[in-house]
Amino acid sequence: MARTPKLSGRRGAVRDTGRGTAREAGRAADRGTAGRGPLRGPGRGPAFESGVLRAPATRPGRDRLLVVCGAKATEKHYLQGLVEHLANPAVTVRIRTKPCSPAQLIAYAAGERDRAGDDFDQVWCVFDVDEYEVGCAVARARREGIEVAVSNPCFELWLVLHFRDHKAHVGTYRELLPYLKRYVPAYDKARLDFRDYEHGWPSAGGRAVRLAEAGHEHATNPSTGVWALVDRIAGR
């Protein structure tokens, strides 16, 4: 909300410098508001326009995200590297891990959000379909107001998309490894190095959005909704 500006001692502001100044200031105020009455801000008393004074610009607050990952290391290391690489001053990201089923992950994230009060503007859960039936977990997330970044079947699909399209059905994580290791031969899901992916994330997002309708990635193989979280972190 814009604040009513304070009078200062700078040139152009009205100052009490001697006899007659207050009367001149009063006449100037009358001329500026004659015929239209005082301007009022919402919930405030009268405020008067001036050709000299301006309300100070308000600095927008940071976008505060809580991201909870359902795997121990891979997603966390990627997202930490992304946040450091982008260094977006408009977004703060807190990343936590909770290796568990998607349903348990949503319940955990909802509890963390409720305990945190107003600390976060948005809560995200990052998880894979793998062998789980995730429809109920996604439905609960929607009821709870929690965003999800689901990869079907796994997060490695998102990594592959940094380098190439992949539209063929994928049964398991192991089926994707040969494609990923063409570009990252030393890939280790426990020791992901974001430098292998720092130049490819915009292309990965463009490829991912063409695989499935946003919000329905859990029902489409192959697909991943990680692009939406990445865009949020990047401020796109």
What does this structure look like?
The structure is a single chain. Strand 5 (122-128), helix 4 and strand 6 form a beta-alpha-beta unit. This protein has eight helices and seven strands; from the N terminus they run H-E-E-E-H-E-H-E-H-E-H-H-H-E-H. The strands form two sheets. Strands 4-3-5-6-7 form a five-stranded mixed sheet, sandwiched between helices. The protein has a two-stranded antiparallel sheet with strand order 1-2. Helix 3 runs parallel beside helix 4 and helix 7 packs across helix 8. Helices cover 35% and strands 14% of the residues. It is globular. It is of the alpha/beta class and 236 residues long.
Mean pLDDT: 82
Low-confidence stretches: 1-59
Number of helices: 8
Helix content: 25-40%
Shape from CA axes?
globular
The secondary-structure element order is HEEEHEHEHEHHHEH
Q: What strand line-up does the widest sheet have? A: 4-3-5-6-7
Give the terminus-to-terminus CA distance. Answer: 25 Å
- The fraction of residues in strands falls at 5-15%
List the helices and strands and how they pair.
Elements: H1 21-33, E1 39-40, E2 46-47, E3 63-69, H2 74-86, E4 91-97, H3 102-116, E5 122-128, H4 135-144, E6 147-152, H5 156-160, H6 173-181, H7 201-208, E7 223-224, H8 226-234
Parallel strand pairs: 3-4, 3-5, 5-6
Antiparallel strand pairs: 1-2, 6-7
What are its keywords?
about 240 residues, alpha/beta, five-stranded mixed beta sheet, two-stranded antiparallel sheet, 8 helices, disordered N terminus
Give a brief description:
The protein is of the alpha/beta class and 236 residues long. 35% of the residues lie in helices and 14% in strands.
